[in-house]
Amino acid sequence: MSDLRTRAWAAAATVCDPEIPVLTVEDLGVLRDVRVAGNTLEVVITPTYSGCPAMNMIALEIETALATAGIEGRVTTTLAPPWTTDWMTAEGRAKLLDYGIAPPPPASSRRALFGETHVACPRCASADTELIAEFGSTSCKALWRCRACREPFDLFKCH
Amino acid sequence: MATTSVAVPDTPLIRLALARADDALVLGHRLSEWTGHAPTLEEDLALANIALDLIGQARSLYALAGEDCGLDEDALAYRRDERAYRNLLLVEQPNGDFARTIVRQFLYAAFIDAWWQAMTASCEPRLAAIAGKAEKETAYHLRHSAEWLIRLGDGTAESHRRAQAALDALFPFAAEMFEPVTAAAFDVAPASLREGWDRQVDAVLATAGLTRPAAPWSHSGGRAGRHTEHLGHLLSEMQYLQRVHPGATW
Q: Under CATH, which architecture does the A3-83 domain have?
């Protein structure tokens, strides 16, 4: 890894998701690559969901982070391979849990139309939880409730 | 009267991308009309989220069509007239009551989820990339609408009556989904998905206690730009700003 590439990656990796500010774009797996070719430097990101409204802001913040680090570069978006929650780092999952959001379950049984999902409460760790709604406050979350501690919580959806 | 529609060349790739983009955009716009009006807060969020996914898919498809004809996604969405829109008649149908919105969503999601899954193997890599994102999203849309349809069909006498009425009204729009859009090698022939769609729909309707309408005839024309009276009204609202202030940005 060239020194410039390492510095650019480090700068981009400081940017947090505007909706889930405890996670960096690196934790999320949204930061995919830094390419250096001749005089141009390109940071490649991928959207979590097709319509994710945070992408423009993330791209802007990465450009700002690069500029602050004195690096000239641009941000491009790629769709393939498609982002999956399996790319979330172990550190990212731990931060998410700590923040009160249940991390995504593994992406295996997604294709069953009415597949059962078991989610532990991020507050009290009880397994006695239930789905309230498949969709939550952002594209990437579903709304759940813990029957033990009675608290509602967000689940980062498996994707 | 001079048309204000942008001219779009007709190649198989552009035709396919526009047809699918128009489906997604028009349905996304319809769902966005529920914002602030859905039966519960959770459902308000769900419909808005699904709308966001669909509009996101539409953007990717318009951008792809635009790469091949030099127009940007805004021009394709906001500066084509009703007759230039290529969406299915099903998706432009008004929201009606909640049952009608759910039935429209279910009939479409059961088709498009299978289509996007098949398109992940398309030999056109840009379409396959969009499919890879879209099929994960439509899997959720299908589950959401199927669960609701079962709850409505198997719920109260009133919810059952409304769900059945919605099904009877919208089923004649379903066959249009299986008409070919292009004969290109990178396209998946919709007719090849008919059997799987029938099986899936029948299984959910059986669980919901709803009767599949006979539908001896069907509506058609959306792919040729012949729409029901509802699309013009939808576009006049959606395109208003760009029509009054062409090229406006913020």
A: 2-Layer Sandwich (3.30)
Any idea where the domains of chain B sit in the sequence?
Answer: 12-213+222-244
Nearest-CB residue to A139 (from B52, B144, B200): B52
Say if B138 is an interface residue toward chain A (CB within 8 Å): no
| A70 contacts A141 by C-beta, under 8 angstroms | no
CB contact under 8 A, B50 and A135: yes
pLDDT tens per residue across span B215-247: 889 999 999 999 999 999 999 999 999 999 988
Q: Give residue B5's pLDDT band: very low, low, confident or very high (50, 70, 90).
A: confident
Q: Which of A49, A79, A132 sits opposite B130 (nearest CB)?
A: A79
B189/A95 Cα distance (integer angstroms)? 45
Classified as helix, coil or strand, A101 is strand
Task: Please state which architecture CATH assigns to domain B12-213+222-244.
Answer: Up-down Bundle (1.20)
Q: Is the ipTM of this complex over 0.90?
A: no
Residues of chain A contacting residue B142, judged by C-beta atoms under 8 Å apart? 113
* pTM attached to this predicted model: 0.93
